[in-house]
């Protein structure tokens, strides 16, 4: 297979972890006789510095004409610490999701047997956890009308959803549940929010089309509590943009490190694959960033093309590295650690 992949390294540790994912992907391509044409493009703070725009038109053209996007991270402290900044790296991410139609963020949370004791949660609570969040990405409060009034003394952010937006996300949730344990949880705040009531009634109306799926409805605050009490009671969870943003970061620590969790953002035509961690600017250039999440995002990319053997090869290499202690300092627990590039080299050579 010949694949054209847009490569958006972004900011901070993004270029370093993306470099390792490229090494591993090229090793897979060589082993399984594929050809990857990498198409680098600017985004985030790097793009603002270069052209004054966090998601330039040229970058969009490259992404839209590619088979998939492999993405690093965006963000820089100089924007975080300046509330008056008119242009921000994160605006590029929102714009990219909207323009590419990436409405479903797929975030798996699973555990690694060799790392169970590194989680902040007790082993007996997390062992066997294997859940997936589907977070709606292009609607809700992040995209609603926002502004200030009364001379800046009052601020507002409107949360708006259409039934069609809920239906297309829920459809992916039902379909994913059918491939797993046929359990689906709709996360909302229907006792307070009108948008949540729309979510709940829409999903309820779709139940008849998937009679084999057991559907539950839970308030977001209850889910936030249960995620740290009994995470393995969940399988597939669907939710709106803001709730999903918060809950998926909470769930990510179950594995023991945000540096281990991959994700995908899917639309009707193209998928974007990225680690869930941020740009971690403090580690930029130090060769200490954990590349595993980005490498596993590449595995999700191959699997999205139907190349499941290739994805499995990457996952097996990652598990072997973790078992043998070929890890960066965040997982070394005071023992021997390896640099970002060393871990990438080891994974590629193992494949």
Please tell me how large the radius of gyration is: 20 Å
Average pLDDT level: 94
Strand order of the largest sheet: 2-1-3-12-11-4-5-10-8-9
What percent of residues are in strands?
15-25%
Please specify the SSE layout and strand pairing:
Layout: E1 2-10, H1 14-32, E2 35-40, H2 44-51, H3 57-64, E3 68-73, H4 77-80, H5 89-100, E4 104-110, H6 123-126, E5 130-136, E6 146-149, E7 154-157, H7 163-179, E8 183-188, H8 194-206, E9 214-219, H9 220-229, E10 236-239, H10 241-252, E11 262-266, E12 271-275, H11 292-304, H12 308-324, H13 329-332, H14 340-350
Parallel strand pairs: 1-2, 1-3, 3-12, 5-10, 8-9, 8-10
Antiparallel strand pairs: 4-5, 4-11, 6-7, 11-12
Please give a structural write-up.
The chain is an alpha/beta fold. The protein has 14 helices and twelve strands. The strands form two sheets. It has a ten-stranded mixed beta sheet with strand order 2-1-3-12-11-4-5-10-8-9, with helices on both faces. Strands 6-7 form a two-stranded antiparallel sheet. Helix 1 links the parallel strand 1 and strand 2 (35-40). The chain is globular. The two termini are 18 Å apart.
């Amino acid at each position: 297979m010949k694949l054209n992949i847009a490569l958006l390294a972004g900011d901070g540790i993004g270029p370093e972890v993306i470099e390792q994912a490229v090494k591993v992907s090229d090793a897979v391509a060589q082993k399984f006789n594929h050809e990857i044409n990498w198409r680098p493009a600017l985004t985030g703070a790097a793009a603002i510095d270069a052209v004054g725009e966090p998601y330039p038109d040229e970058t969009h053209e490259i992404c839209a004409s590619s088979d998939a996007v492999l993405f690093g991270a965006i963000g820089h402290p100089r924007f975080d610490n300046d509330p008056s900044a008119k242009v921000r790296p994160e605006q590029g991410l929102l714009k990219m999701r909207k323009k590419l139609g990436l409405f479903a963020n797929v975030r798996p949370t699973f555990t690694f047997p060799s790392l169970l004791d590194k989680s902040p949660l007790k082993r007996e609570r997390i062992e066997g956890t294997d859940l997936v969040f589907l977070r709606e990405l292009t609607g809700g409060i992040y995209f609603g009308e926002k502004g200030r009034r009364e001379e800046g003394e009052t601020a507002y952010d409107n949360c708006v959803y259409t039934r069609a937006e809920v239906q297309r996300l829920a459809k992916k949730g039902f379909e994913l549940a059918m491939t797993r344990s046929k359990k689906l949880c709709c996360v909302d705040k229907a006792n307070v929010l009108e948008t949540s009531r729309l979510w709940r009634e829409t999903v309820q109306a779709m139940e008849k089309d998937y009679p084999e799926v057991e559907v539950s409805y839970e308030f977001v605050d209850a889910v936030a509590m249960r995620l740290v009490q009994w995470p393995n009671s969940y399988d597939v969870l669907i939710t709106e943009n803001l709730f999903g943003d918060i809950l998926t970061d909470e769930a990510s620590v179950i594995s023991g490190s945000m540096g281990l969790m991959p994700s995908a953002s899917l639309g009707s035509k193209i998928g974007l694959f990225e680690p869930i961690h941020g740009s971690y600017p403090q580690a930029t250039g130090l060769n200490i960033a954990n590349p595993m999440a980005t490498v596993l995002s590449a595995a999700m990319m191959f699997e999205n093309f139907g190349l499941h053997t290739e994805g499995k090869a990457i996952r097996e290499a990652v598990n072997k590295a973790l078992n043998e202690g070929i890890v960066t300092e965040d997982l070394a627990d005071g023992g021997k650690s390896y640099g970002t590039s060393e871990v990438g080299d080891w994974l590629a050579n193992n494949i």
